[in-house]
Each structure stands twice: as C-alpha cells, then as structure tokens.
Amino acid sequence: MESLKHRAKAVGVKQTAEAVKSGSAQTVYIAGDADSALTRPIAELCRTHGTELIYVGSKKELGRACGIDVPSAAAAVLKC
C-alpha cells in the first residue's frame, strides 16, 4: 500500500471502477470494512480485466495510505 502515496492513483469507488474499465489500473485496493454492495462490482471488474486486487484493513487506513484525510472504500495504483 506504500505505493499509493507516491504514484499516480485513482481514489474512491467511481474513479477506481473507471480506472479498471479503461485498463489503466495496475493494482486495486479495497477496504475490508467497506460496504460489499459498493466494492463487489469493482472486485468483479478486476477479475474480468485481470487486474491485481488486494484487500486491506479499513477505509480509514486506505484513505490515509492515499494521502487523504477521509476514508476510502477503494483505490487503484495506475500504470505508468
């Protein structure tokens, strides 16, 4: 998750889903405490597009890793 602070990223459910759909997401992170109704479609997109998917502890943790002061359910590191 350290790469989230220093690399181009998409943060939030909508931006992460768009990054996966467009093929620009390298790795997707989903918070374990996020509502599955929001994150399940992203997980399915990752499987369909062959994008690496990693579950992390919490939305607060993920937001902090992204360098933002609010919780985030999902984020993606973008391809260079």
From TrEMBL:
Residues 3-78 form the Ribosomal protein eL8/eL30/eS12/Gadd45 domain. InterPro entries: Ribosomal_eL30-like_sf, Ribosomal_eL8/eL30/eS12/Gad45. Transmembrane segments: none annotated. It comes from the Bacteria. This is Ribosomal L7Ae/L30e/S12e/Gadd45 family protein. It comes from Candidatus Monoglobus merdigallinarum.
